[in-house]
Amino acid sequence: MPFNSQLAFEPIAVQDAYQSWELKKLLGYLQAQSPFYKKLFAEHSVDLSKINTIGDLKLLPTTSKSDMQEHNWDFLCVPKHEIKEYTATSGTMGRPVTVALTGGDLDRLSHNEHQSFICADGNADEIYQLMLTLDRQFMAGMAYYKGIRRLGAALVRTGPGLPAMQWDTIRRLEASSIVTVPSFILKLAEWAQEHQVDLHNATVKKAICIGESLRGADFELNALGQKIHKDWPIKLYSTYASTEMQTAFTECSAGRGGHQQPDLIVLEILDEQGNVLGAGEYGEVTITTLGVEGMPLLRYRTGDICAYYEEPCSCGRHSRRLSPVLGRRQQMIKYKGTTLYPPAIFDILNNIPFVKEYVVEVFTNDLLLDELRLHLNTPLPIDECELKLRPLLQSALRVVPLLQFQPATAIHDMQFPANSRKQVKFIDNR
Ligand SMILES: [Zn+2]
């Protein structure tokens, strides 16, 4: 499929018309090629001739992760010999899902990430230090790699972790940008300060961030973002993506949400009943892929809670922008009369200097209600930490969760269980 990298700069009406045209093609393709969607359309007596615009999407059923977990290979639309790469989801939300890509899909992935890096002010003169794995079927590491290749910039593949090695490489090769998870930037900054590295004169001026939110709903830097900026004022760009969607939403320098790529993905925000919400309303990110050959998705509910905005951006793009992720729908906590998501608790803990490491646990108490337990590591004596912590939690959460102080090694074991590709900061025992 021909991609249209200029579409993001066209008025929304032009983008929507393009998407409606591509949607019609997708529906024909799914009806002809996808065992899963063919069956779903038949079960719901869907009349595809009635679906003419993206506004008609609401007439179609949604798809979820459990559909992909249960019917993984029914999503495949091509003969098996056309699969050129097998990627997989991390499995942090249950059974991993295989996402199979054709040669065309790999090309699409490169285009997607190339456009993402351009959106994040990238150019061919950059040297990107890639602090992510390309192994273990991880799509994002490979996508970034391919995007940087297409951008024409240089790559240094250091992989995740090991701050001393990262700094040694930065000093020798003079990377201008890093690609990593935000909490690791904090680790890099801490190491630098302990070892007299002059952060203000470091060659690295930008970070392309994956995984964790850097901003709150108001687009201002959250505690994590502020903490990074305080020690190391580099330019931060958030990206949002998932293996299933094979497409990234990336912030431009304005930092007002991740730009949708209208030639690659259709975006809807749905409430709990499945109603389509408008701009500025928080609900579940629901996507439809455009141009995917192997495992295209129609109205796929991601589980992530966001809002979108559609005023034109100062960067010149008119594409919709996706807010930072408030949390995962399945991780919603009903706590003492309020609704909250784990990232809000992370943000509070990130702001407390004497909490070094933490894991947030939720479980069901004797009254069958959600209960929170914070596993914490502190350099302070435990009594003193508790005395200082209680009023802070009381004012931020209105109630103090159960507190469990742990040695750093115990927290580390909770955060990095065997076979996990990602750091675990939230444990759901409900
Ligand atoms: Zn912008």
Q: Report the portion of residues in β strands.
A: 15-25%
Low-confidence spans: pLDDT under 50, at least 5 residues?
A: none
Q: Give the distinct bound molecules.
A: zinc ion
Strand count: 21
**So how many helices?**
11
Largest pleated sheet: 9 strands, mixed
The radius of gyration is 22 Å
Kindly report how far apart the N and C termini lie. Answer: 44 Å
Instruction: Give helix % range.
Output: 25-40%
Mean pLDDT: 94
Shape label: globular
Secondary-structure class: alpha/beta
Spatial arrangement of strands, main beta sheet: 4-3-5-6-7-8-9-14-13
Structural commentary:
There is one protein chain. This protein is of the alpha/beta class. The chain is built from eleven helices and 21 strands. It starts with 11 loop residues before the first helix and ends with a strand. The chain is 31% helix and 23% strand. Helix 1 packs across helix 2 and helix 6 crosses helix 7. The mean pLDDT is 94. The strands form five sheets. Strands 4-3-5-6-7-8-9-14-13 form a nine-stranded mixed beta sheet, with helices on both faces. The longest helix has 22 residues, at 12-33. Bound molecules: zinc ion.
